[in-house]
User: What shape does this take?
Amino acid sequence: MRISSPVLKLRDFRLLITASFFESFMRGENVVLGWVVLELTDSPFMVGLAMGIRQAPGFFLGITAGTISDLIDRRKFMRLLMLLAALVALAMGLLLASGKAELWHLLVIPAFAGTIHMMFNTAKQSFVFDLVGRENGLNGMSYLGLSMRGGGMLGALGVGFALAKWGAGAGYFVVAIACCLSVGFLGFIRSRGKSAPSRTGNILTGFSEFWKEMKRNRTIAGLVFVVMLVEFFGFTPTALMPSIARDVWGLGPPGLGILSAFSSGGGILAIAVISLVGHIRYQGLAFIVVLHLFGGGLLLLGFAPSVYVAVIAIVVVSGMMALSDLFSQTLLQRLVPNDLRGR
Assistant: This one.
């Protein structure tokens, strides 16, 4: 079979997106974590707190993760992170299977998983540009997004099914197995990439270089601020999904898994369209359009009169969520010097 896309002709890039597919099963953790916390506390607020704690490391350690990924071999860094992710998921699964899990376990341990997931994403997105170069960045990020959303969809279905049939511990075992498969595919990647950074300096100078670039490059500073607002107002409603599934639409764990799968499916559909287009000249304008559609989808979800309308809204929201990630990350990677792309 002849491969037409220039990025798919790269063996190491194909291995990266395959590893990313299995790594994205970690998104299924939101299904089991949200459901268990909701069943244990009967509080949507506690579900939001658990999800917030899981995502908090991204705010506090994001620059650190980016600096590390700029200074060391990203391949080794990603392999180490996936091994740690498998161990954390296995430990959480054994704890839940034993019936001894307490609320504080569900708040603290997933924070480690969230830290690992954030660090892996930071290194992975920069590694895409290492392999495919700036000229093919959008195309490479599109295929990465497809693999992530596909893995997230299958992970949500698999975890939801395991949760319903064998219990919460089994859901985490699914995640642990997927992380091990991701490590295997990462191990076959040979090249650091033609656009890999030079890797000079240390953590302290890495921080200094980041802040200097933020002060110098006002376009980057503005884009970071916009992305921060989008993440805060647009992505946080996913914490409500367990409560929406159970309390609004009367769905059980499999129903929550199906809603999460539709969420990933919307992202896959949106990114697939971009992949077919191949090149978008005015990416900044496209990003602005996506943000407006994102807001409209959230309003539709909030006022949805039936589960069918809610599913449509979820597909729209997840599609715009995926494109928001795609355009913002591509713009950020293209607008900074090569040695700063992780940060």
Observations:
- The chain has a mean pLDDT of 85.
- The longest helix spans residues 103-132.
- DSSP finds 13 helices and no strands in the chain.
- The CA atoms of residues 138 and 279 lie 7 Å apart.
